[in-house]
## 1
Amino acid sequence: MPKMKTHSGAKKRFKVTGTGKLMKQQAGMRHNLEVKAPGRKARLNKDQTLSKADTKVAKKLLGL
């Protein structure tokens, strides 16, 4: 059987931490940034852990 290929869209979007959690960039930082408060932009700019339900699917796409 051939090797599993990593989903190229998933590898660009998710980062695996040392403990095995998946991190993702939060949505909402692409446009209309002048109307958003600086604190909101700082909060949105941080990475966020992927939810437990989404983690199972994303790990399968990444081949983990």
Note: The first strand starts at residue 14 and ends at 16.
## 2
Amino acid sequence: MSSNKKKNLTPTQQSYHKIEDKYEMKRPVLQNCIRAFIIGGLICTFGQALHMFYYTFFDFTERSAGDPTVATLIFISVLLTGFGVYDRFAQFAGGGTAVPVTGFANAVSSAAIEHRTEGYVLGVGGNIFKLAGSVIVFGTVAAFIIALIKTILIQWGGL
């Protein structure tokens, strides 16, 4: 709480905040960051191994092996979400499971599972894109801004 807000508190509220601070559980931020880094890296390593598997053992080039790799990662993420495993795994791993493809697939499939009792059109169809819509909009806007900056730098900077 900021110091300006603390000044406006009554003595009873200030003493309550002191007691609250005393018993508040401290979060292990460094441990959580390390865990998220390791788990996210393991997910990416698994994705890279899948990528190498597809272009080594199947008729894919290194460039075209990305499509089945992404599809497989999405399938595994949705399957684990459906069985309730991904959420428990995410509780342990924290932000490491938010690796773009698997985290996005988890979020979309979780919304579909949560609202399936409301029907396919209004429940699943209406709620599945609550998160997806914002991600797509902000992703598109960010891509546009980056492309605009790159174009300006190329035109004026000679990059």
Note: Residues 32 and 155 are 43 Å apart (CA to CA).
## 3
Amino acid sequence: MGFAPSKMQVRSSAFSQMGMIPRKHTGEGEDVSPELSWSDAPEGTKAFAVICHDPDAPLVSPNGTYGFVHWVLYNIPGNVNRLEEGTKLYTAGKNDYGKTGYGGPMPPEGHGPHHYYFWVLALSDDTQLEPGLTMWELLARIEPKVLGMNRLIGTYERG
């Protein structure tokens, strides 16, 4: 499965590209998702999906997946270009905490900074997918429908 970033731009009012994610949006704080917005979606976009993944987490599963998934959100209509902080809208998938919805950064103490990739994927199809998909299940289902994607990367480190 391979994707390449497009010209779509992803931003947040909570942190800048490669900036520190505020404690409020972590497992040490209020654990609410940050506000996200995007622009320059490819022509023909009918839906979006959002994923937050930490590839720095030292976890590899027997099926070859890696890192830690913090958020899987999909069935976002193509006319939407912003998610409010702490949103409960759209369809939540399962994160690696074993729950649905957002679960903020909480890297091991003393592990150094981790990078959190907030991916926005523009899709050519708005077929409604069932709740509770993992990131890997979602990617397998939407791969042929991805028109473009890009990410905002934030960092977080615990004492």
Note: The mean pLDDT is 93.
